[in-house]
């Protein structure tokens, strides 16, 4: 994975298919961005390679592009812009990507128990969830669907 080369940002790979990273030191607050990478075989559009991103008009097709790999790309692009603008994040950031979501995430509990040194997270930013429609980005500020009377639960 390509990451911006900034002195305030470091990433490390682990034997488990997760990627923890650290940024601002032990006293700074933290955020965690969990996610999964679809790897299950399944039906696919005839004549298309599921492992190659293909543009068809204004739509893109690729294995897991909308469940959850596309969201990872959006998050990484936003962080790259933030780092380019500010030079540092100002908080600790941990990515945890795993590839067993469709089969019960085997090994994930053991991984998190073994890696208790990962920075604590004050906020969880989950980019995988329901969309209200395909034409408009949807933003929820809580897990699940917030109450209808909450003004922040509406899409922009």
Automatic annotation (TrEMBL):
GO MF annotation terms: metal ion binding; peptidase activity
Keyword check for GTP-binding: no
Region listing for Disordered, in residue ranges: 135-156
Biological process, per Gene Ontology: proteolysis
Keywords: Hydrolase, Metal-binding, Protease
Keyword Hydrolase among record annotations: yes
Name of the protein described by the UniProt record: Peptidase M28 domain-containing protein
Lineage: Bacteria, Bacillati, Actinomycetota, Actinomycetes, Kitasatosporales
